[in-house]
């Protein structure tokens, strides 16, 4: 069975990322192929500021239990969907830290990005695509949701057909990549 990680990048107490992750999950549940979803909430994932002895690119050896657990969790995925807010034109520090912990685990991993913010997450999506490509992930596309056009500040989602289509197409692309690589 295909295992897809659904990562919530915001750790704020008043976040709307959970609502958006549920919207994405509903899209996954509507797909033809059954998938196992690993909900990865960075608020619940214990990752202190990067504390590795060396760069994960130079030496992939994990020296702490939390780094080993994080690496094993990502390594077990066939694909990843990152749900992230845009904070001041960029990604949350917790997300950057989680990415920095690993290197080889990102290599070739199909990734779909779902960003949200006042500008439909355009800034975070551009930067995150660049970062994930830099660490070797295979970015399959992105979907951006805007306050207040697509969702309320409380997380009520009221997207139009254009965003629903973008999500469906992103999931189809991700699914096709995963099925091709498994075959």
Describe this structure in words.
It comes from Brachybacterium epidermidis. It holds the Pfam family FMN_red. Residues 3-148 form the NADPH-dependent FMN reductase-like domain. InterPro entries: Flavoprotein-like_sf, FMN_Rdtase-like_dom, NAD(P)H-dep_reductase. This is NAD(P)H-dependent oxidoreductase. The protein is an alpha/beta fold and 183 residues long. The protein has one domain (2-182): Rossmann fold (3-Layer(aba) Sandwich). Helix content is 37%, strand content 21%. It has 5 helices and 5 strands. The chain has helices at 17-29, 65-75, 93-100, 122-134, 161-182, and strands at residues 2-8, 35-41, 79-85, 110-117, 138-146. Strands 2-1-3-4-5 form a 5-stranded parallel beta sheet, with helices on both faces. Strand 1, helix 1 (17-29) and strand 2 form a beta-alpha-beta unit. The chain is globular and about 45 Å long. The model has no long low-confidence stretch (mean pLDDT 94).
């Amino acid at each position: 069975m295909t295992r897809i990680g659904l990562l919530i990048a915001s750790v704020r107490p008043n976040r709307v990322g959970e609502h958006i992750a549920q919207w994405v999950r509903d899209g996954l549940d509507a797909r033809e192929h059954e998938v196992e979803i690993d909900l990865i909430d960075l608020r619940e994932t214990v990752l202190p500021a990067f504390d590795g002895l060396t760069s994960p690119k130079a030496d992939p050896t994990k020296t702490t239990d939390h780094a080993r657990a994080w690496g094993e969790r990502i390594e077990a995925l066939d694909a990843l969907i990152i749900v992230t807010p845009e904070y001041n034109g960029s990604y949350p520090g917790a997300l950057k830290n989680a990415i920095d912990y690993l290197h080889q685990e990102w290599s070739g991993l199909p990734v779909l990005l779902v960003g949200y913010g006042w500008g439909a997450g355009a800034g975070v999506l551009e930067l995150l695509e660049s970062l994930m490509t830099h660490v070797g992930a295979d970015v399959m596309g992105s979907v951006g949701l805007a306050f207040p056009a697509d969702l309320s500040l409380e997380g009520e989602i009221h997207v139009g057909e254009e965003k629903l289509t973008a999500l469906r197409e992103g999931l189809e692309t991700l699914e096709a990549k995963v099925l091709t690589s498994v075959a």
